[in-house]
Amino acid sequence: MSDEQPLVLRSDRDGLCTITLNRPDKLNSLTPGVFVALREVLDAVAADDAVHCVVLQGAGRSFCAGHDLAAIANGERAPSRHFEPETVDALERLPQPTIARVHGHCFTGGLELALGCDLIVSTTTARFGDTHGQWGLVPIWGMSVRLPERVGRAMAKQLMFTSRRIDGVEAQRIGLADIAVPEEELDAAVEKLAGEILSNSPGTNRRVKLLIADADDLTRTAAIERERTLPHGVPEDMAARMSRG
């Protein structure tokens, strides 16, 4: 692949924004340059009111094989100390519902990105794994928080203590993937889910996402009481949708 090709691509159609990691020859492994490009796209998408759903995917044979260890060895550095984890945070904070479209490899840093999305749609043959322990590394991008939130503490410990790889079928069984389908059905499954999201009120989806995020820092009672106050207002299209009957 030419060095002139963008490391991250963006395409938009009818309210759906597709973000593509674009290092297919390296299985979309992550470098500081990829994170800079990804952050630029995420910041633009966050401010774009025309985007109502986001799909994150990888070009070529894999979603993302993780951090590019060669880049680490070569001393490549991000613009600031916590730029990479803050980029995963920015993905998680996108106001729109997000879907990770996973095929091929989804290891470590790639898994961190998938966990930063609201929903994960996978092929049955995709391979998931956290390999920090295999390399003597410690997670700093949020894995120790987001993986237990997804699969529970005990299962997260199993996966992290062993660096075990699992396929999409097992990922769906333990709650890591929301949907797992044969590879030839992946595009249709993602399109169907995105279509269902897009048919909903974008204002409702944004507010529901905020309410769920708010609840993480509140007691259950406080979260329920906060919901009743409509802290984020009501969707702009509420009256129009209600009038349809």
Automatic annotation (TrEMBL):
CDD domains: crotonase-like (cd06558)
Entries under Gene3D superfamilies matching the protein: 2-enoyl-CoA Hydratase, Chain A, domain 1
InterPro entries for this protein: ClpP/crotonase-like_dom_sf (IPR029045), Enoyl-CoA_hydra/iso (IPR001753)
Organism (species): freshwater metagenome
The name this protein goes by in its record: Unannotated protein
A Pfam family assignment: ECH_1
Family: Belongs to the enoyl-CoA hydratase/isomerase family.
